[in-house]
């Protein structure tokens, strides 16, 4: 028997059993990569499923949620979001935001049933659905287009990739 094949053929149940776990109230939403135009707009590389999600948020935050900034206007340019912050009206003022991370209040991003924020999945323990055996923890998530792929870190430090498909992932419980 090939251990890798046995691992991939086993059915998993993702279950939250962290000793201490609090959902972050503010989630990383994107990074300001540059300015746009002369009137204070910034170009944001979104870390959301789609850049459109940033367009519906009225307030974003800097400093891990500590500093709110109101969004005056928001629009798309390709796969980027162009945002204009309230009170930032020149390119010179906007340049100070280059390289900064934007955060969103999780309450401002509605999720459908069965959807989760990647940041909430990272760190979950991966358990065998049949006998409860611990395989490891979710270390990262890759978006492949067809389905997400979970990077599971085992006790030996090795990372194994598991597709998030119904036949493999039975339950996610953050």
Polypeptide structure, described:
By secondary structure, the chain is mainly beta. The chain is built from four helices and eleven strands, in the order H-E-E-E-H-E-E-E-H-E-H-E-E-E-E. A six-stranded antiparallel sheet has the order 4-5-6-3-2-7. Strand 4 (59-62) and strand 5 form a beta hairpin. The longest helix is centred in the first third of the chain and has 7 residues, at 3-9. The protein is elongated. Residues 1-20 have low confidence and may be disordered.
Task: Please tag this protein with its features.
disordered N terminus, 4 helices, five-stranded antiparallel sheet, mainly beta, 174 residues
State the distance separating the first and last CA atoms: 33 Å
In spatial order, strands of the major sheet run: 4-5-6-3-2-7
Coarse morphology: elongated
Question: Low-confidence parts lasting 5 or more residues at pLDDT below 50?
Answer: 1-20
Q: Which percent bin holds the helix content?
A: 10-25%
Strand content: 35-45%
User: Over all CA atoms, what is the radius of gyration?
Assistant: 19 Å
What is the H-and-E element order?
Answer: HEEEHEEEHEHEEEE
Structural class, please?
Answer: mainly beta
**β-strand number:** 11
Mean pLDDT: 84
**How many DSSP H or I helices?**
4
Largest sheet: 6 strands, antiparallel
